[in-house]
């Protein structure tokens, strides 16, 4: 998300500076980037332009699919996944081994026992949300934050798709 946002805003060299929360899942409409919650804030010229913003959200949601198509099905967006893994590992290291509290990172985790998140996600068991990490692991699941009506509609589509994805995943694991 940060790479695409930096490129669309005309400053690809700033990609590593942005931290854009992406909630939901890991495929298509289940990927819900919260551009308005970026730290630091994305340029207002990007956020205020509906056409650019819509194109960016679509690119974030389906960019991995385009990579697979470009590789004729012989690979995936491995660099994106590697970078996401690196950022998460870096956050874990800061929290666990550098004893830092309050390190915030996104994680696709079990959320059914968190009333706030479970309500916002209509009872889904798993969802990507911001978590606060500390020396002993996850300190707290953080709220999704304020989202506009358009994002609420996107969230409904995300939830509908994730219900099926989660069911398939649970069935698969239960068959092992």
TrEMBL record:
The keyword NADP does not apply. SUPFAM superfamilies: LDH C-terminal domain-like (SSF56327). It holds the Pfam family Ldh_1_C. GO terms for molecular function: L-malate dehydrogenase (NAD+) activity. It is an enzyme of class 1 (oxidoreductase). Its EC number is 1.1.1.37. GO terms for biological process: tricarboxylic acid cycle. It catalyses: (S)-malate + NAD(+) = oxaloacetate + NADH + H(+). Transmembrane segments: none annotated. Keywords: NAD, Oxidoreductase, Tricarboxylic acid cycle. Residues 1-173 form the Lactate/malate dehydrogenase C-terminal domain. One of its GO terms (cellular component) is cytosol. InterPro entries: Lactate/malate_DH_C, Lactate_DH/Glyco_Ohase_4_C. The keyword Oxidoreductase applies. Belongs to the LDH/MDH superfamily. MDH type 1 family. Homodimer. This is malate dehydrogenase. It comes from Phakopsora pachyrhizi.
């Amino acid at each position: 998300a940060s790479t695409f946002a930096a490129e669309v805003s005309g400053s690809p060299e700033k990609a590593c500076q942005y931290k854009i929360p992406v909630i939901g899942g890991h495929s298509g409409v289940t990927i819900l980037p919260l551009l308005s919650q970026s730290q630091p804030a994305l340029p207002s010229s990007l956020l205020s332009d509906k056409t650019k913003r819509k194109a960016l959200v679509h690119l974030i949601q389906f960019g991995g699919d385009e990579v697979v198509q470009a590789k004729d099905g012989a690979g995936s967006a491995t660099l994106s996944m590697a970078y996401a893994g690196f950022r998460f590992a870096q956050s874990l290291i800061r929290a666990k081994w550098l004893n830092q509290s309050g390190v915030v990172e996104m994680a696709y985790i079990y959320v059914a026992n968190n009333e706030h998140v479970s309500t916002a996600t209509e009872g889904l068991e798993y969802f990507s949300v911001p978590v606060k990490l500390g020396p002993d692991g996850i300190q707290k699941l953080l709220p999704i934050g304020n989202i506009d009506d358009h994002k609420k509609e996107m969230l409904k589509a995300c939830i509908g798709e994730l219900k099926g994805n989660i069911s398939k995943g649970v069935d698969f694991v239960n068959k092992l």
